[in-house]
Structures are given as structure tokens and as C-alpha cells.
């Protein structure tokens, strides 16, 4: 599997004492992403195919007046979904999203999924942008008509009665439906195709939505889609030793106190001194070093120290921990 670069933002919890001599740390553990890309796909070109070239300009104008958005709001919203894809994966993966100078190619402009793009065109587009694959927003549809209806009812009430309706809604749910395809020009296969339904709730003021609610929803939908290519995480617990033994007890405890305030490199330096002395606490210190390196995101060093703790000092916790790290290392390759 292609190597995945993990983003260690923060731990889910700091060290906690579970009993007198031991403690633990909770951290984020990766799972495979929903979509595993073929080897060699790094740069992905993204385009918007959800629009038609001869769109009804008058319809756009009416919609923009009623919803309070700029002209062509549905069109701009579909482009926002593309921006969401770009921002949703930037600096979080080995993948690189490429936005071309011409973001749009024209499709059906309806909910009906268009035919596959011609593979010659796909190859030409990827070659021009130095991309390995082409991600296409094939269709995009929103419920802006629902927003328009709610607003129109209030406008009608004002015109008829001189005031808004008596019962005003206090929120609105904005839905977008998108269909995405990822074209691999080299194997001429579809690496991913996904029908997405995404929604967000917004508060209304006097029965009216704020400008931009559709664009905001579309942008979030783009982020939601591209997260299919990112690893997911769940919380795991790593047991550690809190107290040392013998003459190294004070030094060992000093390392623990550094770990409690997330000074992991300081803690490692102290525990390495304990290991070098080879006393009663050496195996426990080696295990703590292993966990510290996993917290810091270095699975290789974590595995080396877990194996050392069991092989050289017979630490029982380290045997099972080394097996866990071996599995994680294979996943990260």
C-alpha cells in the first residue's frame, strides 16, 4: 500500500494514572481510508462537469433576487464544492489537488448522470496538467427551490398583508446532491464513483436565510467527499509505567512527569538514561520510550524500542505492543 502521511494534530487525552504504578495515554490510531487509490496516483486534476453551456440566464437572475445571493448562485455553489475538495485534503495527505485554468467542462446540467468522458479527452487533460487522474463533479443539484419558496411566501405575505406571515420558520435545511467520478487514464478505469447527499442546517432571520448558505453547504460537501481518500482514526489506549524501581526510581519518575506535560522528547532522554544503566527499571523505561515514539508519530522507532524491551528485558507488555506496532507499520507502508 502506498505510504500515507498522517497528521498528528493532538492527542485525545493526556496521561492518566490507572493505578499506583502504571498509567496510559490515549491517541489517534489510523484506519484505511474508504478509497484506496492505485499505485502511482498522486496528482489529481479536478473539474466541474455539472453545468450546461447554454444555461437559462433569466432563471439564474430570478433565483438570485429571491434568495439574496449573487447571480448564478447554483453555478457558483458547484464551484464551491470543487474548492472544498482542494481545501479538504491540502496538507493532510500525499495527494495533490490540481485546479486547472478552465475549471468547467459542460455536461447535462441535470440530476441525470452523464456518460463517461472519452478516455482520449481524459488522457489529454491529465497530460496537460501533469496529473495522474481526473476527478469530475459529474452532477450537482441543490434544494435552492425550497429556499426560494420559503422566501417567496414571505414576500407574498408582505405584499398582500403588509407584514410577514404569522408563523415564521426559524431554520432551514439545505441539501446538495452530487455525483463524483475519478478517472484513471492509464488503466482506463473508474477508481471511484460516489453518489453523495449532504446537508446543513441554518438559522433564519425573520424567515429569511442568510446569503451564501448554498455555497457554504456545497463547500462543506466537497470537504466531506474528499475525506473518503484520507485515513480515519479511532481512539486507542497505550499502557505505560508510571513508577520505576530501585536506584533509578527518581530518574524514572522525572521522565513520567515530563510525559504528563507532553514533553515527550525530554521524557525519552530521561528514560534512555535509565535503559543505559540497565537496572530494574530498564525494561519498563524501554516500553515507555516505545510508546513515546508512537505518540510522536515515529512507528519505526516505537517498534524498535518495544522489541528491545521484550527481547532484552523480558517486559511482558512490550511483547503484545510490538505485534500491534508491526501491524501498524505494514499499514503505513
Automatic annotation (TrEMBL):
Phosphoprotein found in the keyword field: no
Cleaved signal peptide residues: 1-23
Bilayer-spanning residue ranges: none
Domain of life: Bacteria
Keyword tags: Signal
Keyword Signal: yes
Name used for this protein in its record: DUF6340 family protein
